[in-house]
Amino acid sequence: AQSVTQLDSQVPVFEEAPVELRCNYSSSVSVYLFWYVQYPNQGLQLLLKYLSGSTLVESINGFEAEFNKSQTSFHLRKPSVHISDTAEYFCAVGGTFGNEKLTFGTGTRLTIIP
Amino acid sequence: GAVVSQHPSRVICKSGTSVKIECRSLDFQATTMFWYRQFPKKSLMLMATSNEGSKATYEQGVEKDKFLINHASLTLSTLTVTSAHPEDSSFYICSARDQGRSYEQYFGPGTRLTVT
Q1: Cα separations (Å) of A73 from A15, B35, B36?
Q2: What is the mean pLDDT of residues A92-104?
Q3: What is the pLDDT of residues A70-96, one digit of tens each?
Q4: Residue B22 contacts by C-beta under 8 Å, 6 or more apart in sequence?
């Protein structure tokens, strides 16, 4: 069984400040890890993913996440946030067998303060 | 690439009627599609896994006779909410797994269902 914990339900951050959204997971098998972003009244968009290789993965809009196997974490970071980053962020874990479903965390609402 | 569409985006129906939601993979083949339900300010709850050409696999607690799923082709899955009640009002999101890249799911934009 797998589970994902996002401890912070809401994170307010001033514009241009750095942010970290925390994600911890538990799994008895090897995993793939994902961060999705959801804007109001929209579906989910893949932000970034860890499949294998380098533990630091980056997105095209400045976010990055680092897979830490010993701490079972996949925290999301951005050095300087923008108003447009206001959204709900979901961490998800999937098994590496390829046909397994995703397990989502409860989400973190990131609010950027002008 | 990897676009998933849902139709309709919003639907309002009367209690007791049935509503069909379509999920299409536009530029790839999806042997597996997933249906999720999202409550306000909550995470996604997986309802069922839809496999092309076979019966859907429902998660515990989801009524298969109420939420009918059909995956008749590699690009289309449908969710029918039968005899809808106000408590079925929710945001329904589908995702599709690319046949060639089985580890990744692509999500549709969601369907807002309101039952009056």
Answers
A1: 26, 27, 25
A2: 77
A3: 999 999 999 999 999 999 999 999 876
A4: B6, B7, B76, B77, B78
In the predicted structure, residue A97 carries a pLDDT above the cut 90? no
Alpha helices in B40-115 (DSSP H): none
Exposure b/e, A17-47, CB count within 10 A at least 16 = b? eebebbbbbebeeebbbbbbbbeeebbbebb
For residue A48, the SS3 value is strand
**Choice between A54 and B88, residue whose per-residue pLDDT is larger:** B88
Question: Which of the residues A42, A45, A48, A90 would you substitute to probe the B interface, choosing the one with the greatest number of B C-beta atoms within 10 Å?
Answer: A42
Q: Which two tokens stand for residue B75?
A: 């690009």
Q: Do A104 and B44 touch (CB under 8 A)?
A: yes
Q: Which residues pair with B31 in a beta bridge?
A: none
Closest CA to B113 of B95, B97, B96, B93: B93
Interchain pair A106, B46: CB under 8 A: no
Average pLDDT over residues A3-15: 94
Question: Which one-letter amino acid corresponds to residue A100?
Answer: E
Amino acid at B82: T
Phi, psi angle pair for B33, to nearest 5°: -130, 155
User: Chain A residue closest to B49 (CA)?
Assistant: A101
Whether residue B102 is predicted with pLDDT greater than 70 in this model: the reply is no
Cross-chain CB nearest to B93 (options A43, A106, A107):
A43
Query: What six digits make up the tokens of B28?
Result: 């790839």
